[in-house]
Amino acid sequence: MLTFKKTTLALALAGATLATAAHANEVEVLHWWTSGGEARAANVLKELMEAEGYGWQDFAVAGGGGETAMTVLKSRAMSGNPPSAAQIKGPEIQEWGELGLLGDLNEVADAESWDELLPEVVADIMRYDDQYVAVPVNVHRVNWLWANPAVLEAAGVEMPTTLDEFFAAGEAIREAGYVPLAHGGQAWQDATVFESVVLGGQGSEFYQQALVELDPEALGGEQMVAALEDFKRTRELMDEGMSGRDWNIATAMVIEGTAGMQLMGDWAKGEFTAAGLTAGEDYLCAAAPGTEDAFTFNIDSLAMFRVASDNEREAQQVLARLVLEPTFQEAFNLAKGSIPARPDLDMSEFDSCAQQSLADFQRTAEEGGLVPSMAHGMAVRADVQGAIFDVVTNYFNDANMPAEEAAQRMVRAAQAAAF
Amino acid sequence: MRDTLPMKNTSATPLGLGAKRVPSGSLQAWLPRLVLAPSVAISLFFVYGFMLWTFVLSLTSSRMLPSYDFVGFGQYARLMANERWWVASTNLMIFGVLFVLICLVIGAFLAILLDQKIRQEGALRTIYLYPMALSFIVTGVVWKWLLNPQLGIQAMVQSWGFESFRFDWIVDPDMAIYTLVIAAVWQASGFVMALFLAGLRGIDDSIVKAAQLDGASLPRIYWRVVMPCLRPVVFSAVMILAHIAIKSFDLVVALTGGGPGYATDLPATFMYAHAFTRAQIGLGSASAMLMLGGVLAILIPYLYSELRSRKHG
Predict the structure, then answer these.
(1) Using only C-alpha atoms, what is the Rg of chain A?
(2) E strand or H helix at A297
(3) Rounded mean pLDDT of B106-115?
(4) Is there a contact between A194 and A295 (Cβ–Cβ < 8 Å)?
(5) Pick from A345, B148, B248, B302: CA 20 to 30 A from residue A204's CA?
(6) What does the pLDDT look like over A242-263, one tens digit per residue?
């Protein structure tokens, strides 16, 4: 009995230490930057914090796409002990804001004039109720087309710039004996291709109406039917071994030259770089066919939780300032393959794909065409996104479902998911 | 502790302190309960308490975090209107029935073959039983490669020259659910075989001998004499297999990831997706309650028959 008591005491003590783990002048950051390059990038931030005299308590939770990290975060938040900052993105920031758990960053935002620094679309996502509650870390572009130049040459085609050229190029590549489009049959990859095809065939205005504002007329209309038909055609360009394949295996097919092209966000670049290839020579990148004047973004951000002590609050503000400072932006984005969230940086260190990405980012931010990615949780809430994923992936894999029916289902999905 | 107390008790009696016998006797009666109390309390709280909590959550509009905004059976209504839930439930039916039946047939058949007093029976038994030692994740990954049309069986047979051979169930939404059955049967039928073999060894040889004397053929002996004796084994095997089927989660995740599309979704993967990744805790809880209902529908008749037979025995 005595030992039992001792254990309980020890457990209780351990619990108490855990609960007060985030000391004054220290930030505890929950993130899932755990792969080699990402972890090094996160370490840069830690060193910067320490150089300013603040502690950094790492709270890295590994697991694909941050699902595990989110589960941990939810349980921490429910027990009334959230970390000071967490990697939360897109509309989820609004959901956490609605729960009243986020603290504001207005002081640092005013001091660093974020309003001018960040494009309006990006700033909107970082704000809840007109207060800055999160800081953008990087910008990924989703609408990329990657290609192996040797395969394109063997098939005698150029990098396609419209959907028609894309399908024609695909046929030529198949005739030359390669897989035209590398793909993995997972719901999010299906959705990634889908949104690029919607954007490429129907334009960014339609994309905004249908997949961001969820306008039922756009979702169920003729343009959506046309987009769905285009989407189904891309399936003919894929190989039959794609079921459940991971995206990086699909990228490897392009690298090895068994497949010609892949539609994937710019994290695919990490795979090309790791294989020792050079952008523009050993592999090609271009905006997904027909989407030259558009940019679907996927932005990682750190949201700040409301904290009690002034010291911890101060540390949060410093963290937010450092995240947007050029040193970290450059180091982190070079490692991750994305582009900096602030457009005013010197890009000479970055490769040609990243430079083009940033140029397009600035251009689309000014001229319109900068839209959030639906497939990567930037456009709609998680439940609506899930319901749309279900329709998209079911339609894509069902040979008998007409596009009209899929469009109608999408309308219902958008309505039914919101309770 | 249980040993030391009665000793104190007996040593107290000769000293004329018999009065103490009553309280220490009741302590003796209470002690096991006291000792068991923490584990009972823990399982009450963590198992039944959380079941209750899940039920409460299924009546709320909870999304990302639990909330207590009650909406009655609204989440159940949504669930019933959700096409994916029906796909998942139908899949569970197909998977559950086929998995249990095929495992029983193959398991019984293998057991009968092994029962023919063959050489090296121990080694053979081990070979058939080993798949059970693997986790479903390993089984899933291996079968995923075997069934992949460009890497596995189809590619192999085609490379032998049978160009028209096709075995691409895993990429066909209508057939993909049967690939789950294949992998699960491969894993579990050896275990069923072991159950049957144990049952066969328990049958009195003289019954079989008597049947042989009466001139019954071997298949007839097995069908009319041996199998009826194995009814309890069949019963336990069905119970074990049925709950493996209902709880199946890892196999789906590793083998098909629920795909193509959501063609191989099962209630467990549905529940996980909605409660944990799609911020619909209310809907996820409702589906969890329905799964619990399914498990109870199997468990209660089982417990009932078990308890009843014990009373009679």
Answers:
(1) 23
(2) strand A295-304
(3) 90
(4) no
(5) A345
(6) 887 888 889 999 999 999 999 9
3-class SS at A100?
coil
Fold for A144-296+360-417, please state it: D-Maltodextrin-Binding Protein; domain 2 (3.40.190)
A337 to chain B, closest Cα gap in Å: 26
Tell me the H-state helices in A67-119: 67-78, 91-98, 106-111, 114-117
> B49 lies in which domain range?
4-58
**Is residue B133 domain-shared with residue B170, that is, in the same domain?**
yes
> How far apart are the CA of A71 and the nearest CA of chain B, in angstroms?
7
Cis peptide bond prior to B149, omega within 30° of 0: no
Residues A411, A67: Cα–Cα separation, whole Å? 27
CB-based contact (8 Å) between B165 and chain A?
no
Query: What share of chain B has pLDDT > 70, as a percent?
Result: 90
**Rounded to 5°, angle at Cα A11 from A5 and A12:** 90
- Judged by CB atoms closer than 8 Å, whether chains meet at B82 and A95 is answered as no
Do A187 and B150 make contact, defined as CB atoms within 8 angstroms? no
What does pLDDT average to over chain A?
A: 86
